[in-house]
């Protein structure tokens, strides 16, 4: 034993240090245990809070997605409905346009028909007036003939046209002075067969369009036995290259050529090959 062991002041600090160390160790252990327990308790207590906070977040996201999907569906439905309305309106407009077009065509055809009828009546009236003037003139000049007439002209009939023949004569005489145009069918320009066809159409007689066919359209008659309204032709029957209308007194009217146009001339001016009688 140390020689100082009996001294209290030397032993008391050693005991105090051990006691303090032991107490510190115990306290540290207790504090560690408490810390671990506290940390564990904090961890265990925090876990439900974390789960409770996440659930509303997921639920809100899902609700937002559902709402967005509903908006898209509603917009699509509205778009389909708008397109359907547009398609229906377009179909209705097309149907109405088609009906309007059909009505317009029908109206145009009717107006054209009325115009043609009016033109025909006007031509018939004009022909009738011309025929009356021609009759009065022929009555005043009975027996007269062209001073340059040949045997063909002097041997033809000078009888005055009546009825439809008079209307045909009046029609062609009213066109004298009009222009000659190949293929012309009037009302102010003609070719030879177009003039003849129009003259007979004015009295309701349909003739073929070309001179070859018109030269065989009626009964063949001799040039010495002509009557007003007979069709004259130049060339062979069935192969004629020119036609005109005999108007009496050795005269005819025809659309001759582009230089002379429609003229009234003596048979001696251009002797025909033959004639046919339609009326």
Question: What does this entry look like structurally?
Answer:
The protein is built from five helices and eight strands, in the order H-H-H-E-E-H-H-E-E-E-E-E-E. It has 279 residues and is α+β, with helices and mostly antiparallel strands. The strands form two sheets. It has a six-stranded antiparallel beta sheet with strand order 3-8-4-5-6-7. It has a single domain (71-140, 153-279), classed as Alpha-Beta Complex (endopeptidase fold (from Nostoc punctiforme)), CATH 3.90.1720.
Structural class label: alpha+beta
Task: Let me know the CATH homologous superfamily.
Answer: endopeptidase domain like (from Nostoc punctiforme)
How many beta-strand segments? 8
CATH 2nd-level architecture: Alpha-Beta Complex
What is the distance, rounded to the nearest whole angstrom, between the alpha carbons of the first and last residues? 182 Å
CATH class: Alpha Beta
Percent of sequence in beta strands: 5-15%
- Briefly note the CATH topology name: endopeptidase fold (from Nostoc punctiforme)
| N-to-C series of helices and strands | HHHEEHHEEEEEE
User: Major β-sheet, in short?
Assistant: 6 strands, antiparallel
What descriptors fit this protein?
alpha+beta; single chain; rod-shaped; 58% helix; six-stranded antiparallel β-sheet; 5 helices; two-stranded parallel ribbon; 279 residues; endopeptidase fold (from Nostoc punctiforme)
């Amino acid at each position: 034993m140390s020689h100082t062991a009996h001294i209290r002041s030397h032993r008391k600090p050693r005991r105090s240090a051990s006691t303090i160390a032991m107490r510190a160790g115990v306290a540290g252990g207790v504090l560690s245990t408490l810390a671990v327990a506290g940390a564990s308790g904090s961890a265990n207590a925090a876990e439900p809070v974390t789960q409770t906070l996440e659930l509303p977040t997921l639920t809100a996201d899902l609700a937002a997605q559902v709402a967005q999907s509903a908006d898209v569906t509603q917009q699509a439905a509205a778009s389909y409905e708008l397109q359907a309305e547009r398609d229906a309106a377009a179909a209705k407009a097309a149907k109405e346009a088609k009906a309007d077009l059909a009505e317009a065509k029908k109206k145009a055809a009717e107006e054209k028909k009325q115009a043609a009828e009016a033109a025909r009546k006007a031509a018939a009236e004009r022909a009738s007036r011309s025929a009356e003037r021609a009759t009065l003139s022929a009555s005043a000049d009975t027996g007269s003939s062209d001073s340059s007439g040949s045997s063909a002209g002097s041997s033809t009939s000078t009888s005055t046209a009546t009825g439809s023949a008079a209307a045909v004569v009046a029609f062609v005489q009213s066109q004298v002075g009009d222009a000659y145009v190949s293929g012309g069918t009037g009302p102010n320009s003609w070719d030879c067969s177009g003039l003849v066809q129009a003259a007979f159409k004015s009295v309701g007689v349909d003739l073929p369009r070309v001179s070859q066919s018109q030269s065989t359209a009626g009964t063949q008659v001799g040039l010495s036995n002509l009557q007003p309204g007979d069709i004259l032709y130049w060339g062979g029957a069935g192969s004629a290259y020119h036609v005109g209308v005999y108007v009496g007194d050795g005269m005819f009217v025809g659309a001759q050529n582009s230089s002379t146009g429609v003229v009234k001339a003596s048979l001696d001016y251009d002797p025909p090959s033959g004639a046919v009688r339609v009326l």
